[in-house]
Amino acid sequence: MTPADLSRTVLHAVRRAVDEDALHAPVPPRVRVERTRPGGSGDYACAVALQLAGPAALPALEVARILRDRVAAEPGVGRVEITGPGFLSFTLAAPAESDRAVLTAVREQGLAYGHGDALRDRILQFHHAREVRAAVTAHAVRRLVLAQGARVRTSCEAEPDPDWARLGVTVDAYGTPPAPLTGIRPVPAGATAAELLERLGPDAARWGLLRAAGHDRAALGPDLLVQGEANPLFRVRYAHARARALTRGAAALGFTAETPARGEDPAAHLAHHPAARPLLDLIADHPAVLLAGARHRAPDRVARQLEAVAHAFFDFHDACPPLPAGDEKPSAAHRSRLALAEAAGTVLAGGLSLLGIRAPEHL
C-alpha cells in the first residue's frame, strides 16, 4: 500500500463514519499522511482526527477512536494506534497479509473489483462531437465514472450516428446544451463507425479508439486483428482466456484456488516470488488506476493497465505453473498460484468490460 493508497483508505473511513452518523463533520477533499517521525510508532501518521474535531464538536481522541476501527478493517492495514492528542498511526500489513487481502477482495468482488464511491457526490455532464472516437470515448468515460459512484449524463452535438449502437454507444440527448458542459474531445478517428465496424468489428474498433491517449491519433490499422502476441488486444484477451482455462484444468484435477492460509510460510507461496510480485502489485494497484481513469477522463490508462497485467500474467505463468505437471500432486503452492492467476483473469475481464469490450472464455 502506497501513501496515496493509505490516504484514500483514511478518506474512505471518514466518509463511512459520516454516512453512518457516527461523525457529523464535512468530509475533507483529501487526507494527508506522512512517514512517522523518528521515535514515533507505526509506518505512517495522520492528523485528520484533530482536523475534524472542531467541526464534529468532539474531542480529537473520540474522533480518532471512531476512525481507528474503520481504517483497521481495510485490506493492507495491519494495525492502527492512537497517539498523543489524537494522531492516528498506521502499521501496514506484511506482504503476505496484504497479498492475501487483495486476492480475497478480487474473489469476493469479482468484476466489480476496483469499483468504488470516490465520485459519488459528483453529477457529471459530458458533451461530445458527432464523431465516432469522441462518442466511444465519452461512453467509456461514462462507464468509468459510474463505477466510481458518480451520476452522469452524456449528450452529442447532433443526432447520433445509428451505427454507434453497434459499438455499444448510447447518448442521453443531443443538440446544443443550455449551459457549457464538460467536453470530450479526442483527436478524431478519421473514419466513420460503419467503416471501422466493417474493417475491424466492434471489439477491435473500440480498443483502437480507446487505447491511445485522447491527444494522440488512434491506431486503427489491421494489426488490431492479428492473432498473436504483437497485438496488445489479443494478448490481453488471451491472458484472460488462459486464466479461465487454468480454472477448468484445476477442476479436472480435483482442486480449486485458495489464498495462503494464515500462518503458512509466504516464501512457499507468492509474497516473495520474483515472478509473482509484479502481478500482485498490478492487481493491488488496479482500483487506483480505475479511479485515475475516471478522474482524468482517460480510458487509455485502463487499457495500458490491462496490457501490463497480461504481460505480468504470462511471466508469472511461465515461471510458476499453476497446474501440476505429470504425476505431481496439487499442493498449497499450486492453489495459491491458481488464486493469483484467477485474480488476474478477473481484473482483465472487469477492465475490458469497463471499456465495452468482450472477454471471451476461449480464444
Automatic annotation (TrEMBL):
It holds the Pfam family DALR_1. Keywords: ATP-binding, Ligase, Nucleotide-binding. It is an enzyme of class 6 (ligase). It catalyses: tRNA(Arg) + L-arginine + ATP = L-arginyl-tRNA(Arg) + AMP + diphosphate. GO terms for molecular function: arginine-tRNA ligase activity; ATP binding. Residues 236-363 form the DALR anticodon binding domain. The keyword Nucleotide-binding applies. The keyword ATP-binding applies. Its EC number is 6.1.1.19. Gene3D superfamilies: Arginyl tRNA synthetase N-terminal domain (3.30.1360.70), Isoleucyl-tRNA Synthetase, Domain 1 (1.10.730.10). SUPFAM superfamilies: Anticodon-binding domain of a subclass of class I aminoacyl-tRNA synthetases (SSF47323), Arginyl-tRNA synthetase (ArgRS), N-terminal 'additional' domain (SSF55190). Transmembrane segments: none annotated. GO terms for biological process: arginyl-tRNA aminoacylation. Residues 4-92 form the Arginyl tRNA synthetase N-terminal domain. InterPro entries: Arg-tRNA-ligase, Arg-tRNA-synth_N, Arg-tRNA-synth_N_sf, DALR_anticod-bd, tRNAsynth_Ia_anticodon-bd. One of its GO terms (cellular component) is cytoplasm. NCBIfam families: ArgS_rel_codon. This is arginine--tRNA ligase.
